[in-house]
Amino acid sequence: MNESTLSKKEVICNWPFSDSSLSIKANAIREILKVSARPGIINFAGGLPAAELFPETHLKEATEKVFQKHGPKALQYSLTLGIVELRELLSERISTADNKYEPDSIQITTGSQQGLDMIGRAFINPGDYILTEAPTYLGALSAFNFYDARYCTVPLDEGGMRVDLAEDLIKKYKPKVIYVVPNFQNPSGITMSASRREILVELASRYQIPIVDDNPYGELRYSGDPVPSLKALGGDAVISLGTFSKIISPGVRTGWIAACPKVIRMMEKVKQSVDLHSATFPQYMIYEYMLAGHLEKHLEIICKAYHKRRDVMLNTMANEFPAEVTFTRPEGGLFLWVTLPKSIGAADIFDKAIDAGVAFVPGKPFFPHEDNDQHFRLNFCHASEDNIMEGIRRLAKVLNSL
Amino acid sequence: MNESTLSKKEVICNWPFSDSSLSIKANAIREILKVSARPGIINFAGGLPAAELFPETHLKEATEKVFQKHGPKALQYSLTLGIVELRELLSERISTADNKYEPDSIQITTGSQQGLDMIGRAFINPGDYILTEAPTYLGALSAFNFYDARYCTVPLDEGGMRVDLAEDLIKKYKPKVIYVVPNFQNPSGITMSASRREILVELASRYQIPIVDDNPYGELRYSGDPVPSLKALGGDAVISLGTFSKIISPGVRTGWIAACPKVIRMMEKVKQSVDLHSATFPQYMIYEYMLAGHLEKHLEIICKAYHKRRDVMLNTMANEFPAEVTFTRPEGGLFLWVTLPKSIGAADIFDKAIDAGVAFVPGKPFFPHEDNDQHFRLNFCHASEDNIMEGIRRLAKVLNSL
Predict the structure, then answer these.
(1) Which residues on neighbouring strands pair with residue A238, listed in sequence order?
(2) Residues 6 or more apart in contact with residue B271 via CB below 8 angstroms
(3) Which ipTM score applies to this complex?
């Protein structure tokens, strides 16, 4: 190598990044995960399921079966929609008497996050409005923001989205899509009531607006009565996102979009250009795991454990938190939502909490307009019961000192 | 469920897809793969490596080690850049004396296709030009087209991109990025000469245009002498895309972007919004496979087999094809490129070839402006030697009958 080539090592003075990429904000949760990984910190921040509950033994058995039964096929390129075997099992599993899914109504994705990005890509023109709950899942905002979405937001109460406020927004902003997390919502833990679901699908039908039903936690119910799915009420107006991340393992990154054929045809084209298809091998792992009949039993195990952890967290909070700090009591899922008195900002106490050895996610980035700093999100599934008690005590100390 | 909800089943009459998604053309190769999967067809179409050469036994051992050594960590969410263990091994492997990579100069992707989409996302504003070879990899066009890229194209000859024609195009179109497949190019099989690489990096430096070096086949050389990498000549102006798809397994969908820190920081933000991170489990599989030292020996095995297959295909073509049909003689990679006489269009003979029991990819979609139908691409690695001979004879029959 001569001098002139060596001198070229730092040639690009200003990298010509695109406008859209320059406007991406780092995902707040991923950034907080870096801080909360410090030793000694009890982590209520991320959306991580409990690693000690992963079905390692059965997944190992499933993996052996993948090599035995599928061999090279599990290591080769595969269909853009995802392997047929998994889509067959999955379509049976999510079908009901009134709503039949075919294997071709499913697009396998690299986790739900990719599903959200693909929804953004398939539907949003720059400046289009999306009707969302406020607060809503920040990963969805991160996905939709890239496509220059704008938001019209409906507040939540204990019955979920205040759908009585939705119609005026629909008339005013003509949203392209309605995005909701109806079950054990991220971040609030709130579940939308059956009557509000009926109103929402009626609005969707009347104004011809597809509903994106983001449902990673639907099978993690610990108390209360099941509510009909949006799909059961709204049929083909509903695009459902699901994932194995919270019920088997997030590291296999296997999620799905289930929708009517027209939407799935579009998703297939989108998926071709983004990564051809999701990893084949983990799809076969999940397939063999489900085929062996392990999933339903595993769901019982994790629901039982998460149920206890939720109760431990709620009880400790009730005992230790100052009375003016309130919180939701979710019937399932991973998260609960804390509301601070108006005088206190959640971002302000984040550093104090980290110093005290406990991490949460401040609520602001969950609001599409980032106009509310009065909340934070706690994951009640990830830590052990002992750590939940200790972590909540640490947090209570911070809150009581304000 | 009552009548009024049932009647909502087909509520969305016109799905409000985004303009960009409506303009996506189905990926020609993925569509052809469906046709060429019919029984009895000898398939030279896809970019599939030979499945019977996958290192199944060693990957099975690696998978057992993943469960033994990493357990829950391999099943949990992981870092957006990818698992540290793999990035450490990989950075050592791709570093040279003059070009050191750190683990943090690598972003793991879901195959190279995702790397291409992320490049598009990070650099292209609507209407921006990209300087490419013509023909060039159609998966890259599929990725970049979504971002409304335009193309200024430089023809190829046996020495690769005609870089003597590049400067005028750079002056006229001010391309944002230079995209090249310098080694055993897809689709042509041609390798860019060392002297042209020097000219290209000099142009990149002088006009401040990053080079994207898409290099999935670089380690698959069967004859001829190695050529210095663009990175070795161009240093930090070069963004390199690599993948384990062609050297270990495509089904694990594990590729990477290697670049200077500023670019990788941007890629990390992009990756957060598209899927948080690629699947953890396959990354650990690849890591344990490489750690056990299997990769170099496996490369010898597949290079030996692909070398023979290439020679069988070239020899059969030389014997059987009409003299007016010419073709490239690649020193490596997976593909060779056939040129038809001007009177014959490749798309026209595709159906005849399928009827004769052999599939290829017509060349038109590899041209950014789709202005040339005189070529087709053959994969010489996927079929057995016997099938290569038989498939080329079938194809020769079609060509001789025209």
Answers:
(1) A211
(2) B80, B81, B107, B109, B118, B277
(3) 0.95
**Pairing verdict, β A42-43 and A358-359:** parallel
Q: What DSSP element (H or E) covers A120?
A: helix A111-123
- Interface size, chain A vs chain B, as Cβ–Cβ contacts under 8 Å: 316
How close does chain B come to A273, measured CA to CA in Å? 5
Contacts of A390 (CB under 8 A, 6+ apart): A42
Ordered by where they begin, the domains of chain B are: 15-55+296-400 (3.90.1150.10), 56-294 (3.40.640.10)
* A264 vs B17: CA distance, rounded Å: 12
**pLDDT tens profile B201-210:** 999 999 999 9
Query: Residue B94: is it exposed, middle or buried by C-beta count within 10 angstroms (0-12/13-18/19+)?
Result: buried
- Report the C-alpha gap between A135 and A161 in whole angstroms: 10
Q: Which residues pair with A401 in a beta bridge?
A: none
**Is residue B151 over pLDDT 50?**
yes
Average pLDDT of chain A? 94
Contact A11 B236 (CB under 8 A): yes
CB B183 within 8 A of CB B106: no
- CA dihedral (A132, A136, A137, A140) positive or negative: positive
For residue B224, what are the CA distances in angstroms to A30, A307, B308?
46, 65, 15
In chain A, what is the greatest distance between 2 CA atoms, to the nearest angstrom? 74
Partner-chain residue, chosen from A8, A98, A110, that has the shortest CB–CB distance to B1: A98
**Which residue bears the tokens 């969908």?**
B253
Instruction: Report pLDDT digits (tens) over B218-263.
Output: 999 999 999 999 999 999 999 999 999 999 999 999 999 999 999 9
Amino acid at B330: P
Pairwise CA distance, residues A150 & A161, whole Å: 18
* Tokens coding B266: 């941007």
The residues with which B255 forms a beta bridge, in sequence order, are B109, B243
DSSP state of B332: B
Q: How many CA atoms lie within 13 A of B39 on its CB side?
A: 0
Conformation bin of residue A193: beta by default, left when phi > 0, alpha when psi is -120 to 50: beta
| A316 and A393 Cβ atoms separated by less than 8 Å | yes
Q: Provide the token pair at B367.
A: 């041209």
- Shortest distance between the Cα of B109 and any Cα of chain A, in A, equals 9
Nearest to B72 among A51, A263, A266 (CB): A51
Q: Residue A127: left (phi > 0), alpha (psi -120 to 50), or beta?
A: left
pLDDT band at B129 (very low <50, low <70, confident <90, very high): very high
CB B97 within 8 A of CB A258: no
Q: Are A103 and A84 in contact (CB under 8 A)?
A: yes
Start-end of H helices in B227-364: 230-234, 261-275, 280-291, 294-320, 346-356
Helix, strand, coil fractions of chain B, as percent rounded to 5: 50, 15, 40
Nearest CB to B60 within list A67, A143, A251: A67
Q: Pull the structure tokens for residue B149.
A: 């890229």
Closest CA to B63 of B285, B275, B228: B285
- CA of B109: which chain A residue's CA is closest? A275
Task: Report the alpha-carbon distance of residue A229 to residue A195 in Å, rounded.
Answer: 11
Distance from CA of B65 to the nearest CA of A (A): 11
User: In whole angstroms, what is the distance from residue B282 CA to residue A396 CA?
Assistant: 41
* CA A327/CA A396 separation, integer angstroms: 13
Residues A383 and A390: their CA atoms lie apart, in Å, by: 10
Give the distance from residue B281's alpha carbon to the nearest chain A alpha carbon, in angstroms: 6
Residues of B in contact with A50 (CB under 8 A): none
CA neighbours closer than 13 Å in the CB half-sphere of residue B121: 26
